[in-house]
């Protein structure tokens, strides 16, 4: 059975500097989200990811810390994802990495990047394998790819950058 790892690189900065070695975003040199409440285009997952007993072939990364998984490719509708989280309506399968109203616009807005296509380089896979095996009971875990989402020095709503997430 093949497995994949959802690698989410983030750490909260609470007044102290935290050094984090981020995973790279693979082959994409311009895979970033630059709009407030924006999201990535649909990302193809091959092989599909199994999540709570269902297999998903596509995902979307949102600016506000949400990964949405889909069975079929479709145009990303970030407002629909947010409405689902806030009102518990709709039929979305999500991981809320952190659910926050972040703002990447303006001076010091930080950046959000994602992997497109998924990351498959040997060094990243080995690092993910070691992290999962060391931190969980899954000692035989063997990732085949990584989905990487990075929220780096993003501020909160309305261009606030006095408190950021990295």
TrEMBL record:
Keywords: Signal. Residues 59-162 form the NIDO domain. Transmembrane segments: none annotated. Residues 1-19 form the signal peptide. PANTHER family: MUCIN 4-RELATED, NIDOGEN. GO terms for biological process: cell-matrix adhesion. This is NIDO domain-containing protein. Pfam families: NIDO.
């Amino acid at each position: 059975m093949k497995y994949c790892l959802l690698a989410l690189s983030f750490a909260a900065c609470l007044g102290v500097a935290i050094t984090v070695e981020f995973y790279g975003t693979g082959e994409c040199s311009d895979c970033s989200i630059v709009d407030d409440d924006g999201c990535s285009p649909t990302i193809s997952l091959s092989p599909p990811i199994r999540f709570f007993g269902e297999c998903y072939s596509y995902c979307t990364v949102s600016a506000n810390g949400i990964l949405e998984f889909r069975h079929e490719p479709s145009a990303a509708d970030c407002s629909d994802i947010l409405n689902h989280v806030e009102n518990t309506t709709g039929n979305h399968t999500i991981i809320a990495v952190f659910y926050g109203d972040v703002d990447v616009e303006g001076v010091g807005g930080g950046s959000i990047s994602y992997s497109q296509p998924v990351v498959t380089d040997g060094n990243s896979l080995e690092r993910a394998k070691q992290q999962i095996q060391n931190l969980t009971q899954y000692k035989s875990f063997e990732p085949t790819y990584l989905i990487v989402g990075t929220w780096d020095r993003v501020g909160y709503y309305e261009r606030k950058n006095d408190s950021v997430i990295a």
